[in-house]
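Repro:
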Amino acid sequence: MSDRTEGRTTARMLRVSTLALCLEAGVALAALMTVGLSGAQGEGDDSGGGLLILVLPFFTLFGILGAFAVSAVLVLPVVLLGEDLGRRFGGRPLWWQLAGAALAGTLLAPVAGAWGWLAGAVVLAVAALLTRPARRGYFVALLLWGTLAVVSAFLLGGVVLYVQE
């Protein structure tokens, strides 16, 4: 009666993968802001900062909708197909899922080149790995630990910017 997928539903997996993509976007935003602000030291131009504060909720809404779409179209098929291939051909489903994420990352290769493929493959692989154990109570734990990771990334970026002054 103790199946490995007990308590795991497609809706839970979709919520967890959307959350994972949003958390990855938060860490990426912290890294990009740190790199961008470290190169812009000494420039006193702060035009557009108020406008950014006004449109930030709309960016967040579109980001969540985009993460939901990527979860439904790419992450869930990678996870489910990897498990199915693991059952049919043997081997651990994890390796099939990582191969599927690398293959799905190639969708960015024509647009963003080799770096885009690498970024897409890593983002999909992390989201797929975090989506695999989506059972009851996992969403809250991922939300808490992921929020801690995002806050830590912003804190580390602030420390880096402070040390550079």
